Amino acid sequence: MGGKITSFVAAAALAAFLLPSPVLVAGSFRDITLMLSGRDRAFRIFVPARLEESIPILFVFHGTQEPGHGAASIINLTHFDRIAEANHFIAIFPEAFDGNWNDGRENEMAQSYLRDVDDIAFVDKILEKIKTEYPIDLHRIYATGFSNGAIFCHYLAANRSALFAAIAPVSGQLAFPFSKKFHPKDSVSVLEIHGTSDPVVPYGGGRISDDGGKVIGVEATVEYWSRADDCKSRYIQLSMADLNPNDGCYPEKFLWAEGKHDTDVVLCRVVGGGHTWPGSSFPFYLFFLGKVCLDFNASEMIWQFFKNHPKASKF
Predict the structure, then answer these.
(1) Do the domain assignments include residue 155?
(2) Which site among 200, 228, 261, 309 is 20 to 30 Å from 167 CA-CA?
(3) 136 assigned to some structural domain
(4) Domain annotation covers residue 312
(5) CA–CA distance from 288 to each of 12, 15, 217, 266, 282 (Å)?
(6) Domain CATH code at residue 31
C-alpha cells in the first residue's frame, strides 16, 4: 500500500507477488502502452480463449509497488486471469504511475499525487482503446483492487458512476479529503472486503501507516455508498461460515439492499483479518501484514458479486 518500494510493506509484497503463477490458462496476456499527457502509461490485458458476443470487462488495480511491477503483483495475488478464462470476460491490469494511484488522498509520498496524474483519464483511454478491438458489454464494466488500488476503486467509481456497474475494493476505503466531495451521479453496487486488524489501512480510518494520506472508516465508507445508492437504511446480516478455525479470523457479511437501479452494498468484515487478500497464499515472512482469512476466496466472491450486479437499464 501507500508509499515507495523502499517501505518494508511494499518491498516484501513485491518479492511475494512476483513469483510465477503455478497454473497455466488457455487465454493470452498482452502488454499495451498508451500515451497520455506526455507520459507512457502501460497496462496488461488478459483475453480468454473463448469470448461472449458481448464481453464483460474487469479492471484490477494493484497496491503500491515498484514501478512497472504492479500488474504482475496483482495477477499473482488474485489470479483473476484464471477466473476470466473460466467466465469468459476480459481482465485489465493497469500500471500506476511510479507505482502509486492518485486516489483522492493528499499523499505527499506519491508522485502520482505530487504531479497531479489523472488516473481516471488513464482508465477512460484504456476503455476507448478496448472498445475499438472488442464488443464490450457496457452494462458489465467492473473494478476491483487491493490497498492503494482499492482506494482508487472508490475514487474512480464515484467519478465514473454512470460507467461502472459495481466495484469490490479489498483493504481500502474512501479517501480523505475526497470523501467530503463524494457525490456520485449514478448508483453503483459495492462489495467492500476489509480486515478489522489491518495494520496498514486502518479499519476505523485515519492515517495509513506506511505512506501519506488518510482514509475514512470502512463502515462510514459503506454508509456513504448505501446512502448514495438509496438503499434500505437498515442493513441485514448474512450468514458466512468460519470454515477454517485455524486461520485466526472469521468473516461477517452485511447487506444494504434494494438500492436504485437494483444496486446493493455489501460489507464483508474479516474479524481479526489483516492487510491481506482472503483465500490467497501470503508467504510466512509477510506475517507483519496480519492474518489471511482462509474461509473464502475473495476473487471468487468478487466475481460472483459482479455477475449478479450488471448495470441496470434505465429505459
Answers:
(1) yes
(2) 200
(3) yes
(4) no
(5) 10, 15, 21, 27, 11
(6) 3.40.50.1820
Q: Are 105 and 178 in contact (CB under 8 A)?
A: yes
**In a 3-state reduction of DSSP, which class is residue 157?**
helix
Domain extent at residue 165: 8-307
Terminal Cα distance for the chain, rounded: 41
**Closest by CA position to 312, among listed 264, 265, 262:** 262
User: Does 315 reside within a domain?
Assistant: no
Q: How many domains does the chain have?
A: 1
Q: What is the dihedral of CA 118, 123, 126, 131, to 10 degrees?
A: -140
In this structure, the chain runs to a length of 315
- Per-residue confidence of the chain (315 residues) as pLDDT tens digits? 433 333 434 433 443 444 444 344 558 999 999 999 999 999 999 999 999 899 999 999 999 888 999 999 999 999 999 999 999 999 999 999 999 999 999 988 888 888 999 999 999 999 999 999 999 999 999 999 999 999 999 999 999 999 999 999 999 999 999 999 999 999 999 999 999 999 999 999 999 986 779 999 999 999 999 999 999 878 999 999 999 999 999 999 999 999 999 999 999 999 999 999 999 986 655 678 999 999 999 999 999 999 999 998 764
Residue 104 in grid coordinates = 483522492
